[in-house]
Design goal:
single chain; 353 residues; alpha/beta; TIM Barrel; 8-stranded parallel barrel; two-stranded antiparallel ribbon; 15 helices; 12% strand; binds flavin mononucleotide
Length: 353
């Protein structure tokens, strides 16, 4: 299977399959009404500093595509939307491109339309440091995401099934590139155990990419006409849970991108409450860009931001980060999850990170 063909099939099946089947579990989290919020909407600031640059809104169009001229137009439009909104954008994996020296134009177009914004390179954890440097150089990228996707690789016919040595290679990549490195999942989440292992090695930027949105094991199975068992169809840590694991493991100096099935302001507000620095989205943005182009993506993020500001004001918060200190209530499977993991419910109800 050619990489270019695979990129097109990922788009096709991501659009066809949509989100799930499991949920993000943000629905198990509830904000408490604050009857005395004392916030003037004029004082609400959604702009955040991210990687030394200022984003107008605390959002990221997360990794989707690149690598073939057939997707150049998708990346061009996504980049125009990101530039117009003042939000960050990551490209899809550049691993095949830097390995085979092909498809650069479909990535370079992202920097072309967003010369001053935060642009994020993306590669596999199998990349050599030289390949990672080449990916960064291609975009004059501010940072590089290195993705971990064992569940996807397992169900991908042509996937890389040997998962040994990836942590060592992450260290080699980190030592070889001149920009920060974000360790990123692709829709199955990062558990506290792996946050801790990565932190012990000095990693401090994470993109949790939890389950509940785009489902790569399901996409790979569909590409090969295979059925997944219900276990594997719903594999992964729901986004709310991987964020709770982040909340108990990560410290003030760490950076967490929340992603995985975040589609509306309620979920975004809860992601900020659980400790997100920035909220990333892919599958829904892909749908919007294909159906309505740049205008549809811009309108979506503007409306999302208006609604997020409503949450902040009602909860007495002036910035997304302030939501980490507002009280929340956990119910259902998420309350069970907290108990099973031995986390302090009373602490996580009051304060995350
Ligand atoms: C069509 C498509 C292709 C993707 N390709 C990549 C990729 O190359 N590298 C990567 O790190 N993540 C990739 N992702 C995963 C997303 O960046 C994101 O982590 C995941 O889709 C969860 O977010 P979502 O539920 O908002 O889509 C891709 C997502 C989609 C929809």
């Amino acid at each position: 299977m050619k990489r270019a063909q695979r990129k097109l099939e990922h788009i096709k099946y991501a659009l066809e399959l949509g989100d799930g089947p499991k949920s993000t579990h943000f629905e198990d989290i509830r904000f408490l009404h604050n009857c005395l919020p004392e916030v003037n909407p004029a004082d609400i600031i959604l702009s955040v500093e991210f990687l030394g640059k200022q984003l107008c809104l605390p959002f990221l169009i997360d990794a989707i595509t690149g690598g073939t001229d057939a997707v150049l137009d998708v990346n061009a439009k996504l980049s125009q939307a990101a530039a117009q909104l003042g939000i960050a954008m990551a490209v899809g994996s550049q691993y095949g491109a830097v390995r085979d020296k092909i498809g650069y134009a479909s990535y370079e177009v992202v920097r072309k339309y967003n010369p001053d914004g935060v642009v994020i390179a993306n590669t596999s954890a199998l990349a050599t440091p030289e390949q990672a440097c080449e990916a960064v150089k291609m975009l004059n990228a501010d940072v590089i995401e290195v993705h971990l996707n064992p569940a996807q690789e397992l169900f991908m016919g042509e996937g890389d099934k040997d998962f040994q040595g990836l942590l060592d290679n992450l260290l080699r990549i980190r030592d070889g590139v001149e920009v920060p490195i974000i360790v990123k999942e692709t829709g199955c989440g990062i558990a506290a155990e792996e946050y801790a292992r990565l932190k012990a090695q000095g990693f401090s930027y994470f993109d949790c990419a939890g389950a509940g949105g785009t489902n790569f094991p399901a996409i790979e199975a569909a590409r090969y006409g295979k059925e997944l068992t219900s276990d594997f169809a719903g594999w992964g840590l729901p986004t709310a849970w991987t964020m709770l694991d982040g909340a108990v493991t990560l410290k003030a100096g760490d950076t967490l991108i929340a992603s995985g099935g975040i589609r509306n302001a309620s979920q975004a507000a809860k992601a900020f409450a659980l400790g997100a620095d920035v909220v990333g989205m892919s599958g829904n943005v892909l749908r919007l860009i294909q159906a309505g182009g740049v205008d549809a993506v811009v309108a979506y993020f503007e409306e999302l931001s208006n609604q997020l500001a409503n949450y902040l004001q009602l909860l007495g918060a002036k910035a997304p980060k302030d939501l980490r200190k507002v009280p929340v209530i956990y119910s259902g499977e998420t309350a069970n999850y907290i108990a099973n993991r031995g986390y302090e419910l009373s602490v996580l109800s009051k304060n995350r990170r």
